[in-house]
Amino acid sequence: MQVRVRAFARLREAIGGDLTLEVPEGATMSRLLAAVGETSEQAGEALFEESGELRGYVILMHNGRRVRRAEAGTLTLADGDEVALFPPVAGG
Amino acid sequence: MFGLTEDDFDVNAVIDRVRKPDMGALVTFLGTVRDDGGTEVMELEAYEEVAVRELETIRDEAFARYPIAAVEVIHRVGRLRVGENILLIVVGAGHRKEAFDACEYILERIKESVPIWKKEIGEGGERWVPGESHGGDA
């Protein structure tokens, strides 16, 4: 199935722009994040600590709704979903 | 108008659209691009669909919390020069206190939760302005 990944600010620069990734049916948010990290060394370093843990500043959204980090391992994605990755917001 | 735009706005025209005879106070916040030690240009990026929805949510929260009569919010995106307008908030109310309080509430909520980012570009290079908030549920 295909999932659209949108990234913003310095995460967009590290990942290189929006992506559409092919992931197995029933893949979780964590599985998708790993797949994004595998697209390039820069993307992997921007998203993950050396320990493999998701970096503290990464905010996750699934179809426009915030996802708590603790939910990433259990949230299953569906074909056509949109996942967004971004650092803390700085508007205003 | 309400939401995001690449174009500049006319502050007085927005105030005139909001004002009604029963309003004794129109509090306006105008945010501009600051020269932060050599900044020449600022690039503003947004997750547009989510940002507009979040601005609407914040407006609805302000109406629920304060006895105000009107809210306009315009946030610019794209490439801006030092001194240019970034954000306009206009709150109309019967009296000043609720208009000031609601305007500040809207501004703080925008900084906390609307997905917009700013990159400062100048002679010394470029930097993303650090976000002030993780949005509460990191």
TrEMBL record, chain A:
- Note the CDD domains from the entry: Ubl_MoaD_like
Per its UniProt record, what Gene3D superfamilies does this chain match? Answer: 3.10.20.30
SUPFAM superfamilies under this entry?
MoaD/ThiS
- The superkingdom listed in its UniProt entry is Archaea
- The name this protein carries in UniProt is Molybdenum biosynthesis protein MoaD
* Protein species of origin: Methanoculleus sediminis
UniProtKB/TrEMBL annotation, chain B:
A single Gene Ontology biological process assigned to it is:
Mo-molybdopterin cofactor biosynthetic process
Write out the coiled-coil annotation as residue ranges.
none
What Pfam families does this protein map onto? MoaE (PF02391)
Under InterPro entries, the record lists: MoaE_sf, Mopterin_biosynth_MoaE
Q: What is this protein called?
A: Molybdopterin biosynthesis protein MoeE
